[in-house]
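Example with several molecule types.
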Amino acid sequence: MIRSTHLPLLITLATFVLAYALCASAYPAMLSLRVVANLLTDNAFLGIAAVGMTFVILSGGIDLSIGSVIAFTGVFLAVILRETSIHPLAAFALVLLLTTAFGTAMGATIHYLEMPPFIVTLAGMFLARGAAYVLSTESVPITHEFYDTLQGLYWKIDGARFRLIGGLMVLTFIVGALVAHRTRFGQNVYALGGGEQAAKLMGVPVARTTIGIYAVSGGLAGLSGIVFSLYTSAGYSLATVGVELDAIAAVVIGGTLLTGGYGFVAGTFFGILIMGLIQTYIVFDGTLSSWWTKIVIGSLLFAFILLQKGLTWAAKKRAAQARMRTATGSAALS
Amino acid sequence: MTDTLTPDAPVLHARGISKFFPGTIALDDVELRLMPGEVHALLGENGAGKSTLIKCLTGAYRRDAGTMLMDGQEIHPVSTADSQRLGIGTVYQEVNLLPNLTVAENLFLGRQPMRGGFIARRRMNEEARAVLAGYGLRIDPAEPLTAYSVAIQQVIAIARAVEMSGKVLILDEPTASLDHDEVQLLFDVIRQVKARGLAVVFITHFLDQVFAISDRATVLRNGRVVGECLLAEMTQRDVVTMMLGRQLEARTKARDVGPAGKTLVEIDDLGKRGMMAPFSLNIREGEVVGLAGLLGSGRTETANLIFGVEPADQGRIALRGQDISIKNPRDAVAHRFALCPEDRKIDGIVGDLSVRDNIILALQARQGWMRPIPRAKVEEIAQSYVRALDIRLASLDMPIRLLSGGNQQKALLARWLATNPAFLILDEPTRGIDVGAHAEIIALIEQLRADGMALLVASSELEELVAYSTRVVVLRDRQQVRELTGDQITPDNIINAIATEEVA
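Resulting C-alpha cells for the full complex:
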C-alpha cells in the first residue's frame, strides 16, 4: 500500500529510472552489466558511509567528520601495514574499533554537553584529518598479498566483474535497512528525529540512542575507509575531502528529510546510484568536463530540497485545516 | 484486577506535598487522594499549582516534602519514564506522540513485540488494532499518526498510557483543542478507562466538562488545597467561588472615583475570527477598566488585540475621536499605548540585560536606534523609577533575572511608564508576586488613575479587581458577557456573571 511517507522514496526511484532511461537512450552501452558492476564498485566507499549518514540525518543530526575518518583509516592501514607485520584483518579490526570509539566520543559529547552535532562533528573532522597528517603527509602505497587476494575476488557474469567491495556495500545497505526498520534501535532513531522531547516522554533512551547513532556512523566511516584503501591500494591524508557532503547529498536525494524523522535507508541506495549514474554519463560522453557532475548533483539536490519543502508545506496546510475545523466548535462553560 | 481493592482505599495518596522554588512556595502541604475507578478533577486558576503538582506526581520534579503512596507503598518517581513504570501515565494537552511514526509504532514504541531479534511488524499492527478496538477506534494502525484527527491522536495517547501504566491516568487539558463531538468521543474513552478501575485525574478549565465527567474534585489556590469535594453536591458557582476565593464580608468601597475624564480610547466591534468575538469598549481618562473571567475566557486575547500583538480582522479603534490603525505593537507604542504582558518571563523581561537596560528598552525603541538616549539621561530615568516604584536591587547593572518576581514586575511597569503612556494595559500585573509587592502595585494603579491615565487591567484576582476598577467587564468563552459599574462591582456579582449557567 502506498502511503504519503513513501512519496519521496518513490520520487527518488522514478528519478533513477528516468535518469537511467535517458542515459541508455543516449548511450545504449550504459545498459550493460559491466556499467552496473562498475557503478557498485566505484561508489562502494561512498555508499557505506552514506548508510551511517542516513541514521544520523534520520535522528535529526549531521556528521561532518566522515570524509576525514575515511582518509585517516586509509593512512592508518597503509602505515601500520608498512611499519609492522600485523595481518590486515587484525588491522581492520583495530581501525574499526578506533573509528567506532571516535564516533561514540562525538555522540557522548553531543548528548551530555548538549552541543549541536554540527559543531562537534566539525571538530571531529579537523581532529581526524589532523591525525591522518600526523601519520603521514605522503601517499603511502599498500602492498600486501592479502590485499591482492581481496582485490582479486569477484563474481563474473558476461564479462562484468562484481567485486567484493560492491557486494560489501549492498550488504551494508541490507543490514542498515533491517536495523532502521526492524529493530528497537532503529525505531528509537526515528523517534528522536520526530521530536526529542516527545521521544523522551515516551521513554526512549535518548542518551544510548544518540551515542549509538554516532558510533554507527563512525564505524561505517571506518569500514568505508577500509573499502577505499582496497579500491585505491594506498592511504593518503589528502584523500576523500568533502565526502561527507557527497554522503549528505546522497541521503537527501534519496528522499530523507534533512530535519530528521522521515526517510528510508533504501532511498539512500538509489541516491548513491543516481549520483554514480551522472558521473558515468559524463565519462561516456567524453567531451563534458567532470565539473558537470557537481552542477547536475547541485541542481538535483536543490530540486529535492524544494520537493521536501513542498511536502512539509502541504502537510502543515492539512494540519491547519484540521485545526480550523476544531476551533469553530463550541466548548467552554456554555 | 482492581476488584480486590476496597472502594475507600486510594490507589494513589499524596500527602503533605510541598515544592519550593527560589522566592516562592509553589506547593504548600498539598494532599491528593485518587480512588480506583473515579475521575478526579484538579481545579485551580493559572499559577494555583496544578502543573507543579502533576510534575511532582510524574517525577518531572522532585518533591521537597511529603509522601506518595501507591497502593499503600511509598514511591519516589525520579523521571516520567520511572513514574510510567510505577503505574502513572500522563497525557498532555499537546499530543505527545511522534508525528513521523505510524499509529502502531507510537502505541508500541519501546515495547514492540519481537521475533528472532526483529520487530514483528505484522503482529504489532494486529495487536495495535485489537487494543484500539477496545477503545472504540476502528482505524488502520499502519497509517501514519498524522492521518488522524487530534481527538483520535489523544485517544491513542490515552491507550498508550493505560497499556503501559494501568493504575493512574493523568489527563492535562486533553480537550483544549477539541470540538464538541470530539470531546464526547474522548469522554466515552475516559468512562471506559474508569470502568477498568483506573484513577483518572482530569485537568481542564472548562467547568462544564468537569461536571460532565468527574466524580470528585480537588481545588487548589496559591499552592494550597482549598478543598476536596464530591461534584454531585456542588454547583458551578460553588466551584468558581472556591477557585477564585473571596472574603465573606462585603467590602464597602470608600474611595473617590473622581470626575470622569474625556473618552480616550473607543473600541468598536474589534475581533478576530477563531480567537475573540467582536467587542466594544470605551475607556476614559482617569478610569480603570477591569477585565474579569476564568482562564481562557479571553482576557489576554482582548489585551493582545488592542495592542496589535494579534492583528484584528474586524472592527476599529479610535483615539480621542480619531480613527487609528494598529497592525502591530509598534503602531500601538507610537500612539502612546503600553502593554505589560501576562507572562513576564517569556514576553516581558530580557533576563540577561541589566535592570537599567530593561527599563529604558521601550523608550529607546520608540525613539529609534539611530538616536540613542544619552547615558546620563538613561541613568536619571532609571534612578527615578527605581525610587518612585521602590524597586529593590543591589545595582542598576545587575541582570534583571536576579530580581524577585515583584521587583521584576515593577521594573516592567517602569519600562512602560518611562514612555509616558496615555493608555496602559496590564495583563495579570500581580501574578506570582508576594503580598507586599502586590499591595504596592495596586496602590500604583490607583495613583496612575488619579493622575489621569486610562488603564485596562486583566486579572484573575477578584479582590484586586474590585479594589481598583471603576468598571469591570466580565468575559466568558471569549465573549463579553457583562459590564459592572459602581456599586455593582463586588466579588459575588463577578462570580455570578462568570458562572451563570445559560438556560437551555
